[in-house]
Amino acid sequence: MPQRTCVGCREVAGREALLRLVRGADGGVRPDPAARQPGRGAWVHPRATCIELAAKRGGLQRAFRGALQVTPAALCADLRAALAEEIVETSRRWERAGRAPGPLGRRLAALRSAEAELGTGSAKS
Ligand SMILES: [Zn+2]
What's the 20 CA to ligand 1 centre distance in angstroms? Predict the structure, then answer.
């Protein structure tokens, strides 16, 4: 299992515990919950506290080599929206697979817990 470092708290964790962020063409930061986007990525725990730390301590700026165009609160909201979409998409695929236990079920559980964690705490802009 590949290990990644959270750009917020600097803890090392498996990639299923972290969310991938990528830099958009507009210089903004985009969530990439399925980790499919090409280009430089950064990994962060799906927690408001880690996202705040990443913005405050410069972890995101270092990962993307430049100034950030996004506030932690806006990034949290983007991440929540991206997770919600990914949850809908994954549960559709899981239903089609007959709710079989396996990677899709585990992925869905991980996404749901990420969404729940992101919903706690408050990121200030
Ligand atoms: Zn973290």
Answer: 12
